Amino acid sequence: MAEADDLKTAYLRALSCDTESAFGGIIAFNQTLDAATATEVAELFAEVIIAPEISAEARDILSAKKNLRVLATGAMPDAGGGGMTLRSLAGGYLLQGRDAALTEGELKVVTKRAPSDAELVDLRFAFTVAKHVKSNAIVYAKAGATIGVGAGQMSRVDSARIAAWKAGEAAEAAGLKESRAVGSVAASDAFFPFADGLMAAINAGATAVIQPGGSMRDDEVIAAADDAGIAMVLTGMRHFRH
Questions:
Q1: What is the pLDDT of residue 81?
Q2: Interhelix angle 195-204/156-173, nearest 10 degrees
Q3: If both were cysteines, with which of 83, 128, 138, 240 could 160 make a disulfide (CB 3.0 to 4.6 Å apart)?
Q4: pLDDT tens figures, 96-115
Q5: CA nearest 6: which of 35, 44, 26?
Q6: 25-53, pLDDT tens digit by residue?
Q7: Pick from 101, 107, 114, 141: which is nearest to 16 by CA?
């Protein structure tokens, strides 16, 4: 996932996070798919492309691809709005409020070093991405783009390690000399039960971390962040998507 001033740049930055897993995947856009972006998309084998609108030029470009499904959604819903979600389970349903977006006042700096303005923007971006990643989720992000994602592990520290490994692979594929996780921020969808998951992110190169907090070992985790000289903010709200 990535955001940028134009759609083509956002797509290429998102793709660079994991070009291997992107093969045969679904590509989603939140703006009108234009010809310049469609030209780049056509270079990749994808199963489905979805966007609010698809320009006539983009349709012509994508129509040349075999076995590709292109969907136009029309107007986009308010992703940060309220409402309820419904999940089925054996014997009934679970009705709960939507996981709404954070507001500026919900972030609490708990370390000696506060995040920079640039880090804060990336922290909010990474935490937004984390709520769409299956738990346990760790997301590394830098300059408005994901650069490593760890998902669906029984151990949070394993998710942190996997995200770092993927960031290293992406850097190697791009011909970079060091992991793209160096200088990134890290988001955790739930609290760190121990400092080991945080240390995995620090060792990967993260300089700031966002997490809900609420562990009985929060003091230990915060102390580890201070010892490493990184910034940490707490949200008071966990995502924990299953």
A1: 73
A2: 10
A3: 138
A4: 888 876 766 689 999 999 99
A5: 35
A6: 999 999 999 999 999 999 999 999 999 99
A7: 141
- Within 10 angstroms of residue 168's Cβ, the number of other Cβ atoms is 20
Burial tier of 221 (Cβ tally within 10 Å: 0-12, 13-18, 19+) = buried
Helices 195-204, 218-228: crossing angle, 10 deg rounding = 20
178, two tokens: 């060091």
Measured distance CA(233)–CA(120) in Å, rounded: 9
User: How far apart, in Å, are the Cα atoms of 30 and each of 33, 125, 127?
Assistant: 9, 15, 18
Comparing CA positions, the residue from 132, 195, 126, 227 lying closest to residue 167 is 126
Q: How far apart are CA 185 and CA 127, in angstroms?
A: 10
**Residue 128 identity (one-letter amino acid):** T
The structure's pTM equals 0.91
Each residue's pLDDT tens digit, 177-233: 999 999 999 999 999 999 999 999 999 999 999 999 999 999 999 999 999 999 999
Task: Report how far apart, in Å, the C-alpha atoms of 81 and of each of 111, 189, 228 are.
Answer: 31, 20, 37
Amino acid at site 127: F
| Phi, psi angles (nearest 5°) of residue 212 | -65, -35
93: β partners: 88
- What is the secondary structure of 106-147 as a DSSP string? G-EE-SSSPPPHHHHHHHHHHHHHHTTSBSS-EEEEETTEEE
